[in-house]
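Fold it.
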Amino acid sequence: MTDIEKMKELRKTGTTTVGLICKEGVVLGTERKSTMGYLVASKESKKLFQLDEHIGMTIAGIAGDAQAIARLMSAELKLYKLQENKRISVKAAANLLANVMYSRRMFPYIVQLIVGGFDEQPRLYSFDPAGAIEEERKFFSTGSGSPMALGVLEERYREGMPCEDAKRLVARAIKAATERDIASGGKGIVLAVIDSKGFRTVPEEETERLIK
């Protein structure tokens, strides 16, 4: 498959993911639909991964590429902890991921990624398929539904907002995307919070309450 064909495939897969910095940490969220052209391949796809006890990642793009990166990064961060006897900083993990993606720039992973984590403070990074990295100071969204999600985030985000409000806003932004983007949806929304206590997934019943 050529690079152009891969980029076309990326447009067909579709998704909506969001990362947002709040007062206590970072909130990550995704919907769960996977598509193959006009076919809904899955309504329960996993698009949010825990890479370490204090780092999470959302994926958009070709599922195989994204899952391979998630496996690789999880293994690399475990190796770092074994060798250094400490956990890696969020910034170092983000730079490692950028280097991995840049090393494949001639045969790129066709993905858009968001990495969020907490060490001394909450941090949020976005990545393109060639490994370009950008530290986000407020929020970011990827995937085919991102224009709708970003519209909601731009209007309602405020710096230093409490975690509860941040979870509600992320859920609302993703919900708005699923209402208008045919490639976003599936069975529910998945949210995770990363703060000084580490990575934790928001219970499904709480997420349902936030959506309603």
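Residues 63-84 form the longest helix (22 residues).
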